[in-house]
């Protein structure tokens, strides 16, 4: 059996999203690769031509600790480096064991601000363009060639929202604390996801990048850094947001952005509003961000100007949910005439898919949509001047991770695509018209997995708990064919998080089905009730139903596969999940089945007692999921809480939790493990002090994978089962 080993998986190239040059003639991709032996992540940037299949790519940057990659022109890329960087040096030591080099580089970076650099893609010449004030971490960079404007976001203090004030206020706060590390809060968030709130807010900033007669780019220090929303209550990107939250107009005169509604407490509301504001206001009135959203609504996303639009002319579009407090509501497309302020809501009553992102076509007559659909993420095109409001699919397979509209009259898109058996690669999509079949040209081959013998994932369907059709993927070990009864293999059932999420035909760098299958497990990915990409009705149906229909779906799905696929060994079945999936492991623990038995469970960042959701960060989430607060709807919380069913617990379980998971605090994982231990159930607890809801550090990811499959192997493949069970019976 060949396959994808854990070590090969951890050390493979991890490409970012492909970004096009201004003319659309070239693309660039950042690539990171972890060296297990040296314990070092190597960062690089590749550049290639758009148009030819598997075009030759050149590595233009290597060995740097870089971020924020953007094109300044067809020949020049801009990127960020730590303070004190030098053109002829790397930004991190060759080997992590070189502690002195690490300390020197870290001290140098901390003593000065982040730097902006450029590289000429033809000859590799690197130049320092400028430096940001100390204490500032620029993010979400974008460059506007028309006005030579660099836009980015940064965290600043609301009391003095200038970049130059960040380090000064940091120092003042440190001096005032007089050695204390206490934090004082008068409102929420106290902490969010994996970090404690520090009193800073996000603002969009803009700076001028000047070019001298020799063509050398320099940050215009005279013009400095300015923010059109600095002295307003509009904080963009919103908490957890990114580059998709704001955009400059094509002429660089106007900014459109989305932000949390200032008057509403962030922890109980998902509502955000869309604003437009001139970049360089002429008076105080113009400085006020103009709200484009009105009335009651929920979250907004993807605000974008149409080509040639500004704050006061042309059109803009965004996505908008109806329900405040529900983060998985259906996203409607809103189009506004910026001169008349008239809005149009595209209902698309016969199309129940919810777009994730949108961009205008070059002629302004249509929108490209990124949409989850039946276990894939696809590109659709919606013609705005057509009587048919049903979007046309431009892709059908795999998952489009990102897309960029290329210049020109035809439909030309630069896509980043992955699948269950292949990580990100760049592709060119072309269609002369919507009547013509689009062509897809692969531009890169950064990871060649063709020799690993990975089996393609198979789609399957079955009738779920409410007699609804449920879709899923089954992924077999290398060389194992469908419905082959020559040998039987253990089954590992994965339950996704969310719960409003989905397994898709995409390459996941945490929960990777190819790795699981390569270990010898038939891996089952089912998009049960609550999943996205199958219509809003299925997504909404999990509300106040966490352990109800989704549980019935899961059991029905496993029973279907046991009947349909003779290669599955019904005596060796395990399950694993994270977040809601980990909650589900606790639910399975307390709800054993009669038709088959789960031999073991793997639980990553779980919920043990749902009443404890009051300790989480985003309070709108449990209040929506369980139809009220813990005091107004206590019976709903208790009904679906795993801790109320511990009298049925008996299945061996691996419990994993990160200390910095503030969405599902570590007490939930400890409560689960303590209960298992008190009941004498074989169990193991793995604690990651520096990880949050996700295990993201490469060394920890390597450890996580080794421990998870060690545990599964013990219970589904190995000889330790008898030893454990003898111990359990004795206790």
Automatic annotation (TrEMBL):
InterPro entries reported for this sequence: 6-blade_b-propeller_TolB-like, AB_hydrolase_fold, Peptidase_S9_cat
Region annotated Disordered, chain positions: 287-308
GO molecular function, one term: serine-type endopeptidase activity
GO biological-process terms attached to the record: proteolysis
UniProt keyword list: Hydrolase, Protease, Signal
Pfam families (UniProt xref): Peptidase_S9 (PF00326)
Top-level lineage group: Eukaryota
Biased composition regions of type Polar residues, renumbered to the chain: 299-308
Span of domain Peptidase S9 prolyl oligopeptidase catalytic: 508-716
Keyword check for Membrane: no
Protein family per UniProt: Belongs to the peptidase S9C family.
Name the UniProt record assigns to this protein: Dipeptidyl-peptidase V
Originating organism: Mixia osmundae (strain CBS 9802 / IAM 14324 / JCM 22182 / KY 12970)
Lineage, highest ranks first: Eukaryota, Fungi, Dikarya, Basidiomycota, Pucciniomycotina
Gene: Mo04941
